[in-house]
Write a structure and sequence with these properties.
Chain B: It holds the Pfam family ABC_tran. The complex is a heterodimer of chains A (306) and B (344). With 306 residues, chain A is mainly α. Chain A contains 13 helices and two strands; from the N terminus they run αββαααααααααααα. Chain B folds into two domains: 228 residues, P-loop containing nucleotide triphosphate hydrolases (Rossmann fold), CATH 3.40.50; 107 residues, Beta Barrel (OB fold (Dihydrolipoamide Acetyltransferase, E2P)). Classes of the chains: A mainly alpha (306), B alpha+beta (344).
């Protein structure tokens, strides 16, 4: 019995169909690998530059080197830090500076961000430029400007002297020196994050609140603040993370003792040549910072869920 | 009794843009008036001035005789429903409705009573604890309406409330809103650029153009007896043909019709449904396209001088592209110098 030959056209179409399926699958796989490759670079950098140093620092801070060079597991570094008055004073002044800066940033930047969000005139554009300006000024230049203006015999002193008034008690080399510098330095980022958060509050929602009888304070408290809680948390987390581990401004503007953790770590490492203790201080600093880091991660995760 | 009176209100924006130009309107107690016009006609600006969100450059707005021209929104007896719903997404449905009452220091039990009553009114009973993002677009718009109604405003302002909804939902909601408005007998000012909405809901329609009133009338009058060529062209479909009248006849594009007006230029207006077609060997027009809508058909016709008109037919299957037809208008209107000068 003679078999009917298969129609050629059908064969071709089948082959084309199979080829198309293979090609689509190949493209998808290619895209998947390209995506993984793009993600891999930052993940690798974070793992190398952040995760690895942390993972190695924790065991090194728990290592005690004996006089004979032998190493043993010990909490001695931590015991020393938490029993040493000077170390605790440094931690306290770091926490104090961070909290004061965070509070001041909120008090200064929230009204500024509200003004920038709800005003659109030339003055607002000028204020925005002024608020963002510190972002482009390096910390060392800022420190120098601070000393020239608020330091002993600075511009303010000269002006006061010119009108026959007594000198100010300069915040330079007091705990308020780093506070002023760090607040000024962190205003741009905080304002940008808050303005971005306020962008999600539409004019219509504000108008709807006014329509039902809400005045300014009620609108701020009941409508605006609940909508930008996440942005406030993110801004404060960013500020706190930067301030807690800051170095230049506390080093140049702050007192010699007590000092913030940044200069303290540097001095322990360099001047006292005690790397294990400096690593212990770093781990403790990291432990405080991670709390605020978790706040930030929680806020981001919350924003991504409807 | 709540009567809204708008007297010679104008609004100029910085740069000299005239959004509303000497606009006047009286809205009677319990009346629903639609402000209808194309984008940029000033209808939303006018509504926002009544709501207190824009300050009039000149003129007077009163509610029950009380001057509210320069009062802030929070001190006006108006309630506004916004196009974008403008719900507070951090609050649930109940809190959205209760917020205004709390600001008025209403007692807790009264708040609950009022909120539940108004939720029932808009068909959302039992939805109080829902988050706003858990609601559909139509439900969100009902919440926005309920939020305004719960405060029992004297004047309800609706700013294109159905613009973001699909056609089916829009039709259902406009019937519901009309029912609620008639049940509560609340004076309402409604902004829309949808003529269907205006024709189906309004007691009166204000057709606006460039910040001015073109015509204020009942919907059927606006449709059947437009006073300006703009209204004729904006409301429904209208065939408008520029031509010349000589010795009582209109001439243009092969058409020659009796038009008992003085000689001179004129615009002839014919509704598609008032145009009879008959097949002819050497007719006045050629069928360009036939569209069958099920209930009726629409025939696009090419006249000489590149003029195209539309005619509505009961049996679209009788016509096909390329056929030659004669036109016989049953009713026409004519406009000259921007005003209606003849209507048959």
């Amino acid at each position: 019995m003679r078999r009917e030959p298969r129609p050629k056209r059908s064969q071709y179409s089948m082959t084309e169909h199979t080829a198309a399926t293979v090609s689509v699958a190949g493209t998808r796989r290619g895209r998947k690998y390209a995506g993984l490759f793009l993600v891999a670079i930052p993940v690798f950098l974070v793992a190398w530059m952040v995760i690895w140093p942390i993972l190695t620092a924790i065991p090194r801070s728990l290592m005690q080197v004996g006089t004979d060079g032998s190493t043993s597991f010990s909490f001695a570094n931590y015991q020393f830090f938490f029993s040493d008055r000077y170390s605790l004073n440094n931690l306290t002044v770091t926490l104090w500076t961070t909290m004061v800066c965070a509070a001041l940033l909120l008090v200064i930047c929230l009204p500024l961000a509200l003004y920038l969000r709800f005003t659109s005139n030339r003055i607002a554009a000028f204020v925005q430029s002024l608020a963002i300006f510190p972002m482009f000024v390096p910390s060392i230049i800022l420190s120098y400007a601070f000393i020239r203006v608020l330091g002993p015999n600075g511009t303010v002193d000269l002006l006061l002297n010119g009108v026959g008034l007594p000198r100010i008690r300069s915040p330079y080399l007091t705990p308020w020196g780093p506070v002023i510098g760090l607040v000024w330095d962190n205003i741009p980022l905080t304002v940008l994050i808050l303005v971005s958060g306020l962008g999600a509050v539409s004019n219509a929602t504000i108008e709807a609140a006014r329509d039902v009888g809400a005045r300014r304070l009620a609108i701020l408290w009941h409508i605006i603040l609940p909508r930008i809680t996440n942005s406030i948390l993110v801004a404060i987390s960013f500020g706190v993370l930067g301030i807690f581990s800051s170095f230049t401004l506390p080093y140049v503007l702050g007192p010699a003792a007590p000092e913030m953790m940044g200069p303290f770590m540097q001095r322990t490492f360099r001047d006292l040549q005690n790397p294990p203790m400096a690593i212990t201080q770093a781990v403790i600093t990291f432990a405080f910072c991670i709390v605020f880091g978790l706040f930030y991660i929680r806020s981001v995760a919350k924003n991504r869920t409807p | 009794m709540s009567v809204l009176k708008i007297s010679s209100v104008s609004k100029y924006f910085p740069g000299g843009t005239k959004a509303v130009d000497s606009f006047s309107l009286d809205v009677a107690d319990g009346e629903l008036v639609c402000l209808l016009g194309p984008s940029g006609s000033g209808k939303s600006t006018l509504l926002r001035m009544v709501g207190g969100f824009e300050d009039p450059s000149s003129g007077l707005i009163t509610i029950d005789g009380e001057d509210i021209t320069h009062l802030p929104p929070e001190r006006r007896p108006t309630g506004m429903v916004f196009q974008s719903h403008a719900l507070w997404t951090h609050m649930n449905v109940f809190d959205n409705l209760a917020f205004g009452l709390k600001l008025r220091r209403t007692g807790k039990s009264e708040i609950r009573e009022k909120v539940e009553a108004v939720l029932d009114l808009v068909g959302l009973a039992g939805y109080g604890e829902r988050k706003t993002h858990q609601l559909s677009g139509g439900q969100q718009q009902r919440v926005a309406l309920a939020r305004s109604l719960v405060l029992e405003p004297k004047i309800l302002l609706l700013d294109e409330p159905f613009a973001s909804l699909d056609q089916h939902l829009r039709e259902r909601l406009r019937e519901e809103v009309r029912d609620i408005q008639q049940r509560l007998k609340i004076t309402t000012l409604f902004v829309t650029h949808g003529q269907d909405e205006a024709l189906s809901m309004a007691d009166r329609i204000v057709v606006m153009r460039d910040g001015r009133t073109e015509q204020i009338d009942r919907p059927d009058v606006v449709y059947r007896n437009p006073q300006t060529p703009f209204v004729a062209g904006f409301i429904g479909t209208m065939n408008l043909i520029d031509g010349e009248v000589a010795h009582g006849r209109f001439h243009r594009a092969g058409l020659s019709l009796d038009l008992p007006i003085s000689d001179g230029p004129a615009i002839l207006a014919m509704r598609p449904e008032a145009l009879d077609l008959s097949l002819a060997d050497q007719g006045q027009a050629v069928v360009h396209r036939v569209t069958d809508y099920g209930t009726h058909g629409l025939v696009d016709l090419d006249l000489p001088e590149a003029i195209r008109v539309k005619a509505m037919v009961d049996h679209p299957d009788r016509f096909s592209t390329g056929q030659s037809v004669n036109l016989a208008p049953r009713a026409v209107a004519a406009f000259r110098d921007g005003r209606q000068v003849f209507r048959s």
